[in-house]
Design a protein that fits this description.
Number of helices: 10
Distance between the termini: 25 Å
Oligomer: single chain
Helix content: over 70%
Strand content: under 5%
Shape: globular
Largest sheet: none
Number of strands: 0
C-alpha cells in the first residue's frame, strides 16, 4: 500500500486547482461503496472465469488461466485496493505542509531532482508515512471480509483464526486470548 500510495499522495499534494479536486473525488469515491461490494467486484475480476482470466486466455498468455483468487495474491490485491485511500490521505496531508520551495532550494544548490526528493521531501514526509502505515496495518490486521471472500478460508489471518477457534473448536477462552 505504501509503494502505490506514496506516488499517488505526492501527485495529489502537488496538484493544483481542478486537478486536485478531481483526484480527491477519484480517491474518495470508492469509500462510498462498502467493503463487501468492493470485494465482490474483485471476485468478478479475479475469478477463474473472470475478466482478467478471460483476457489472458483470449490472448493466449496462459491457456489454463491464472490462479488469482483463493490465495494470498487475491487477498493482497483486495486489501491494497480497499485500504489505499487511507494511506494516500495520510501521506498527502503531510506532503501538503512541505513547501515546494524546499525542493527547489535543494535543486538550486546542485542536488538532482532525485537527490532533492530523498534528502528533503521524503524525510519530512515520514510522519505521514508512519501514520499511514499504522492506520493501514490496524485496518488490515482486523479485516475479516476481504480474506473470507478473496481467500476463501484458505488464507488464514488473525480474525479468521479467532473465529475458527471460537466456532469450530468451541474454545471461547482461547479465541478471547487470541483476539
Amino acid at each position: 500500500t505504501l509503494l502505490l500510495g506514496y506516488p499517488l499522495a505526492y501527485h495529489l499534494a502537488r496538484a493544483g486547482g481542478r486537478t486536485k479536486g478531481l483526484l480527491l473525488v477519484l480517491l474518495l469515491s470508492p469509500l462510498l461503496v462498502g467493503v463487501v461490494i468492493r470485494s465482490f467486484g474483485w471476485m468478478v475480476l479475479l475469478a477463474d472465469n473472470g475478466l482478467i482470466n478471460s483476457l489472458v486466455k483470449y490472448w493466449g498468455l496462459a491457456p489454463q488461466g491464472l490462479k488469482l483468487m483463493y490465495n494470498e495474491f487475491g487477498v493482497l490485491v483486495g486489501t491494497v485496493h480497499i485500504y489505499l485511500p487511507f494511506m494516500v490521505l495520510s501521506i498527502s496531508g503531510t506532503l501538503q505542509t512541505i513547501a515546494p520551495d524546499l525542493e527547489l532550494a535543494a535543486r538550486s544548490l546542485g542536488a538532482s531532482a532525485r537527490k532533492a526528493f530523498w534528502r528533503v521531501t521524503f524525510p519530512l514526509s515520514l510522519p505521514g508515512v508512519f501514520a499511514g502505515c499504522l492506520l493501514v496495518f490496524v485496518l488490515a490486521v482486523s479485516s475479516y471480509v476481504i480474506p473470507v471472500l478473496l481467500g476463501g478460508f484458505k488464507v488464514i489471518t488473525t480474525p479468521l483464526l479467532v473465529v475458527q477457534t471460537a466456532i469450530d473448536v468451541n474454545n471461547w477462552p482461547g479465541a478471547a486470548a487470541q483476539a
